[in-house]
Design goal:
Layout: H1 5-15, H2 39-42, H3 46-57, H4 69-72, E1 81-83, H5 92-96, H6 105-127, H7 132-136, H8 139-167, H9 190-207, H10 222-237, E2 240-241, E3 247-248, H11 253-270, H12 279-287, E4 296-300, E5 336-338, H13 340-343, H14 352-356, E6 357-358, E7 360-362, E8 368-370, E9 380-381, E10 403-407, H15 408-422, H16 428-441, H17 461-476, H18 482-488, H19 492-506, H20 514-517, H21 530-535
Antiparallel strand pairs: 1-5, 2-3, 4-10, 6-9, 7-8
Helix pairs in contact: 1-3, 3-6, 3-8, 6-8, 8-9, 8-10, 9-10, 10-11, 10-15, 11-15, 15-16, 15-17
Amino acid sequence: MKSLNKKIVLQAGLLLFTLVSFISCKKWLEEKPYSLYAAETYFTNVSEAKKSVLGAYEPLSNSYTYGFYSSLVFDIDSDLGQMDGTGFSNDNRTLAHYNFTPGHAYLANFWTTIYNGINRANLVIQKVPQMDLFQNGSDADKTELKRILGEAKFLRGLYYFDLVRFFGDVPFKLEPTQATDNMSIGKTDREVIYDQIIKDMLEAAQDIPWVSKITLDERISKGAVKGILARVYLGRGGYSLRQDGTMKRPANYKDYYAAALQQTKEIMESGEHSLNPSYETIFRNYCQLKLEPKESMFEVAFFNATGGNDNSGYIGTWNSPVCNPASSYGRANSFYKTLPIFQKSYAAADLRRDVAVATFQIDASNQIVQYTGSNDRLWAPGKWRRNWQNTSPKDLNNTDINWVLLRYADVLLMRAEAENEVNSGPNAAAYEAVNMVRRRGYGLSVTATSAVADIAAGLSKEQFLTMLQKERAFELCFEGFRKFDLTRWNIIGKTLRETEAALKAYRNNFPYIAGTYFRDNKHELYPIPTREIELDPKITQNPNY
């Protein structure tokens, strides 16, 4: 079962501070503070410092971030799945289908919540080194405070990474907000922000322990820092939409692939993480609230004692097969739908297919009922299904299921991609990394060669990358980073249009519209929320909005 730290992480964010987005702080004096403690007098012992950093984790577990928006809306319409329905002007469907305006409320709420997290992390980064115990405490105190400071740096880096990958150049601030601050600061080039993200995460990795050295909970470990940092490096080395309206990658992009290679290699050589022998068990563990950090390296913690909205997620209801509310499992609305052509692209022997895609619904008597004929458009993700959750529902929509931000399988696939890029083609290490993932997917030993599961040798650099793009889909589908991958590879528009054409060929009235609505050199980024531009005239809108 999950550790009690889940409750502490989520309650700390509500207990300690009222921290408002620095972009929205022009109304600071109008806000009625509900804080129980003042930051100026709070950081007096290790326990208070720990609560402060747990409060900096809390914005991750908000419905405006990984409880709903950035897990189940921002990443949905791709070559793997889509949001069900066409929607209205300001709902989840229009955002998923690329049919939205800069005034969309989801974008504004996400933006504010992420900057709230940055502000909390900035406060910890400022205050912890000023504590007397940081310099003069016991060795145990110093070690824990260094870990806390490292966690805050990691979180600040993670929050800025989310902003950069979704919005590109954004306002940049490394100090906690004061009422007298100048709030009109404009945008900072993403390369400058990437420099700080990398600096923060490298420093964090120095003082955050490996998972075997810490209590089992949802706090970040050294291996997870390195894995997220590898993702950052691949993102920076990939393509992104620039302010001149073109897709570009840095001239020294290979340096970032080399850095990603180093981080993933260090994780693999540490022996701290490994693949769970069973792909299905990974997701049963999530549904049953079990932590298993050998494979699941970093999870966003969710918990609400009564099932209410605060710090709960829609994970396992919106992205589950339909479940009748009269069943003993509780309702699953299943707004997230998978694409039948994706399900059919798995090899017959690949066991991941029937875990990843549910071709059925659950009726009022708990029976599994298969969809037939054209109802294959109702297939849904199967990784977080209601009938695996093993508890009576506290709420029809909300669950306590954690959202995974990094699995060891992703580390292996990033290693393979980095090796292929750095060496201008796949080497033995690249093949072995991807084959380990595939062998597990076929239910085989990850260390034994397999004529069935292994990728045949002799691929060119381009062929290996194409294979890896598919393999990341088979392994990581619906886990929140497909559109990020397609964008950094500079194939997102092409892929959406090809997917729509393939679905129309599969069935001429198949309801998929993302390929029609997506515009190259525009939708690779979200627009800066309208209200942020109104508050800070120095902020310019992203291209073509």
